[in-house]
Amino acid sequence: MSDKKKKKLSPTQQEYQKFAQDREPKRPIVLNCVRAFFVGGLICVIAQGIQMFFMTYYHFSQENAGNPTGAVIIIITVLLTGFGVFDHIAQWAGAGTIIPVTGFANTIASASIEHRSEGFVLGVGGNMFKLAGPVIVYGVFSAFVVSLVVIMLRALGVM
Amino acid sequence: MLHGHQSWIFDSKPTIIASAAVGGPHEARGSLADDFDLLHEDIWLGQESFEKAERKLQEQASELAIKKAALKKEDIQFLLSGDLINQTVPSSFAARTLGVPFLGLYGACSTSMEGLALAAQLVDSKFAKHVLVCTSSHNAASEKQYRYPTEYGAQKPPTAQWTVTGAGAALVSDQGEGPKVTSATIGRVIDMGLSDPFNMGAAMAPAAVDTIEAHFRDLNREPSYYDVIATGDLGRVGHRIAGDLLKKHGLEIPEEIFTDCGILIYKEDQPVVLAGGSGCACAATTTFGHFLKRMRKGDLKKLLVVATGALLSPMSFQQKESIPCVAHAVSIEL
């Protein structure tokens, strides 16, 4: 917790939070990093294999093979999410499964499955991007800002 | 009758003539599986939504309790029930099925003891002969509302707890055989400024401590009066904090009698449950299933259950509010 947030707390609250913190198990950060490194790496190795498969057997260029490779990884993730396996892998792997495209696919698939009971329009349609939405909004917005900066720098002759 | 500042003593000793506990798949694999009356392997219970499944859990627990008491629905004057879902719809909808005059409750995970205290009060004051108390929670329905979709792959920290899928019901009556509800302490809302919904144990521990202290102060009792003092759903993290906090405040509860329903309900090595169980059904199924069964057998005579509740909503959490908590204590004796 940041210090700024702590300032609002009364001394009793601060004292208790310190008291409680000393008795809480910490997130095993090093172990989580190691697991994330290997699982994330493994996903990339599999994706590399798929990409090479498309290049060797279907004569895609290296750049063009990226799209079908992403699609295959996404389909596998969505299937694992639907079968109820993905969340268990993710609890173990942490950032290893959430950072690659697998994480993004899982947010959309899991939200869609979850809200199926509220119907296809308000449920699935309305909630599909519940978790992925912010990523898209701020992803697109930051890309827009970066491109503006690039255009201005080019106009000034810096780039 | 009011005793001390915030406690009631029920002079007529209302009796829990029957109780029932229904659980889900993780509870079936937990340590208290034998104490449930009905266990479901399917979290959907054959329903179309998790919310409907939770309603079904309540209906089954209520019907089982009524059946065990050899009564009919018409014999019950009031139903007091609650759960965690928005506008407590599982409770209201289950009450529609039962057709018993209904008062809905919300005290988050403290609802079971809030309900039991009020039921005992209604019976003690002769405002009712038979009152049914029912509380439920459903893991997936709660996750969906409070956190992320069930299948979402976010890593939970070791302090996170697992919402119990289940329902517990108890029938409180002015006469009959069974454990008696002897006193209750209604808790204050305590907020220590914690705001992490993945660490409810630490947020709720001060509320439990406050109510426990109030209980012993009001009733002028020593902790050794009880055979077991069980908190509702502090889990392993909150239980340790509560124990140490009580020691710090000079109230020593012997370790062998101080326990927590969230620790008892699951096995220690059970995957996914992390710090232990939580949810309305945690204290409800453990008390109305496990503890009352032990009392009827006679190997437990004096029990104090302190059900703890975190009074947050998904919106209050997103608006960066801290988590206010409450705990209610009810003593059950043979």
Could you describe the largest sheet of chain B, including whether it forms a barrel?
A: 7 strands, mixed
Based on CA atoms alone, the radius of gyration of chain A comes out at 22 Å
Helix/sheet category of chain A: mainly alpha
Instruction: Work out the number of β strands of chain A.
Output: 0
- Which class of secondary structure composition applies to the elements of chain B? alpha/beta
> Stretches of chain A where pLDDT falls below 50 for ≥5 residues?
none
Report on the biggest sheet of chain A: none
What distance lies between the first and last C-alpha atoms of chain A, to the nearest angstrom?
41 Å
What fraction of the residues of chain B are assigned to beta strands by DSSP?
Answer: 15-25%
Number of helices, where a helix is a run of at least 4 consecutive DSSP H or I residues of chain A: 9
Description of the structure:
- The complex is a heterodimer of chains A (159) and B (334).
- Chain A has 159 residues and is mainly α.
- Chain A folds into 2 domains: 103 residues, no CATH class; 30 residues.
- Helices cover 77% and strands 0% of the residues of chain A.
- Chain A is built from 9 helices and no strands.
- In chain A, α7 runs antiparallel to α8.
- Chain A is extended.
- Chain A starts with a helix and ends with a helix.
- In chain A, 19% of the residues are buried.
- The mean pLDDT of chain A is 92.
- Chain B has a 7-stranded mixed beta sheet with strand order 1-2-10-15-14-11-12, with helices on both faces. In chain B, strands 4-3-9-7-5-6 form a 6-stranded mixed beta sheet, sandwiched between helices.
- In chain B, α2 packs across α3.
- The two termini of chain B are 20 Å apart.
- The longest helix of chain B has 20 residues.
- Chain B has 334 residues and is of the alpha/beta class.
- Chain B folds into 2 domains: 172 residues, Stage V sporulation protein AD (Peroxisomal Thiolase, Chain A, domain 1, 3-Layer(aba) Sandwich), CATH 3.40.47.40; 154 residues, Peroxisomal Thiolase, Chain A, domain 1 (3-Layer(aba) Sandwich).
- Chain B contains 10 helices and 15 strands.
